[in-house]
């Protein structure tokens, strides 16, 4: 079987969690010897992926690439000899193709008004249409499946749950040392409002008033959080911007805890990566986080900075952190198992 992948999002400069997950899954599918993979996207992907690549009309320009995805991609697909098209970021064609289409939809946060204005509008216009046009949808948690069924009003048997995996590098091997404080709390992710950065900072101020500890924020550097939140900079808060996986691994390994008080997650990669490194997690009790992290995290109410601070303090004061238990929870999520389950869904669609 020949699997085509819409790789339009793979060439962005600072890929977020959903795109990173899609890239890792594509690489796992390429390693799978029973099937051939064809990518549709930027010619720059040839240096990273050992797969056939269609780049006709692609120009690494954000606006043009969206036009390319909606107009030229279906034409390229029709001229190729693939058996099925997989669209990993909710970016399936808006009409039925001659071949089956399987789309991954991580969540419906845009439909619920939880993303930026332009992105929200685009997703509200395209995702419902694409969902109806494709043959099967996969998503990354039972929570997201229920949200998709409710918001998009789809038949239950069209949506399949396949949990994300995490990069093997978080379980084993070396990390890349970076300059970090001696004792710090960590946040990894975008500065999207649904990540609850405001609640995190308020909780940190409460913890900082009682003990010496700093806060490190890792993620895309396209926003000034203090300006956006209309607050004064807080001493002890460090922004590291976007780092590569081995640098992030070093930050996980040396943190006292990852604090992730998000309001809404379809899966939540950073907490699982933190567990893989043996670092405890303080997580919001919303979205898919309780489902994915189970009993391996300390859960807090994201609406209450005091409760977030209490959870952080409990972890800092704990003398019984069982790193092996944390890692066992993370080991449930591997890209090998994800690829096998996706191929099963794809074969059924074909």
UniProtKB/TrEMBL annotation:
Alphabetized CDD domains for the sequence: GT4_MtfB-like (cd03809)
Domain of life: Archaea
Organism expressing this protein natively: Haloferax namakaokahaiae
Record has Transferase as a keyword: yes
GO terms for MF: transferase activity
Keywords tagged on the record: Transferase
KW Protease (keyword) present: no
Protein name according to UniProt: Glycosyltransferase family 4 protein
InterPro entries on file: Glyco_trans_1, Glyco_trans_4-like_N
Domain (Glycosyltransferase subfamily 4-like N-terminal) ranges: 15-167
Residue ranges of every copy of the Glycosyl transferase family domain listed in the record: 176-332
């Amino acid at each position: 079987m020949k699997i085509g992948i819409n790789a339009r999002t793979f060439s962005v400069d600072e890929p977020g969690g959903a795109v990173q997950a899609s890239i890792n899954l594509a690489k796992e599918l390429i390693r799978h010897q029973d099937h051939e993979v064809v990518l549709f996207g930027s010619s720059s992907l040839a240096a990273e992926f050992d797969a056939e690549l269609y780049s006709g009309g692609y120009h690494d320009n954000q606006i043009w690439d969206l036009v390319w995805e909606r107009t030229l991609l279906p034409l390229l697909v029709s001229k190729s000899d693939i058996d099925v098209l997989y669209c990993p970021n909710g970016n399936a064609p808006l009409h039925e193709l001659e071949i089956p289409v399987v789309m991954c939809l991580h969540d419906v946060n845009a439909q619920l008004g939880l993303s930026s204005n332009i992105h929200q509008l685009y997703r509200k216009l395209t995702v419902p249409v694409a969902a109806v046009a494709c043959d099967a949808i996969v998503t990354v948690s039972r929570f997201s499946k229920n949200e998709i069924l409710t918001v998009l009003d789809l038949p239950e048997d069209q949506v399949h749950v396949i949990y994300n995996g995490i990069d093997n590098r978080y379980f084993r091997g070396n990390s890349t040392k970076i300059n970090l404080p001696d004792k710090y709390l960590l946040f990894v992710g975008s500065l999207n409002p649904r990540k609850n950065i405001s609640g995190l900072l308020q909780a940190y101020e409460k913890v900082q008033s009682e003990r010496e500890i700093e806060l490190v924020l890792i993620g895309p550097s396209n926003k000034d959080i203090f300006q956006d939140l209309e607050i004064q900079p807080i001493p002890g808060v460090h922004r590291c911007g976007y780092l590569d996986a081995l640098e992030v691994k070093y930050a996980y390994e040396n943190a006292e805890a990852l604090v992730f008080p998000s309001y809404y997650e379809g899966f939540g990669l950073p907490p699982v990566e933190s567990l893989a490194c043996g670092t405890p997690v303080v997580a919001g009790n919303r979205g898919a986080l309780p489902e994915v992290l189970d009993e391996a995290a300390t859960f807090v109410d994201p609406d209450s900075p005091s409760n977030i601070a209490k959870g952080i303090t409990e972890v800092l004061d704990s003398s019984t952190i069982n790193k092996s238990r944390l890692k066992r929870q993370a080991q449930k999520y591997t890209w090998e198992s994800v690829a096998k389950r996706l191929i099963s869904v794809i074969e059924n669609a074909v």
